[in-house]
Amino acid sequence: MFLFTRSLRLRPSSTRDALSWAMEVTEAVDHTTDLKVSLWSRTFSPQLGTLVWSTAVEDLVQLEAADDKLVADEAYQALVARGTQFVEQLPDDFIASYVNAVPDPAIPVEYVSVVTGVCAAGSLAKGAELGVRIAEESTRISGAPCSFLIGASGHFGAVAWVSGHPNLSEMQRAEQAVFADSDFLALVDSETPGVYADGVGAVEQHYYRKIM
What we know:
single chain, Alpha-Beta Plaits, 8-stranded antiparallel β-barrel, 8 strands
């Protein structure tokens, strides 16, 4: 199972109109393809104004078929062209494969917390093993499902931990539970050095709120 995301950053002005346009794009993709797309807005995090469309696909062939339909759809292409007035830069696509805990689409999620990093050179296998362990411990402690993913595009060895929450209060509760657990902190402090790249900006955390 793969997670596909397309992200872009909006211009500082016309935020309301830009969000309406982004919602139209989401509805058009859902109508034209068999993808079930969600739209998210980065919140309480760097680079405000970042929007992300996300969808889970069984394989890349499914993604290719959807893309072919959208390329051939004149109404969709016109909609994309209209969005240039709102967008600060070209969008970025990212594909990652789920290593564990594929989210259940029946469980409502309004906020997600995403921690990203990159495996250090020569540590891909160890990074995958430890990544799953960290995700499982986070889930056990907080009760909030945490998925571990490895990037299939972008930085080689990119990894991500994604935790979904039904609301902001639950996200806060879950994170407080994890960071109050001394065994979890000891696991991260003792096992991650040398496995994932370090330094300022090597590991980041962002929050996203679901728009639709």
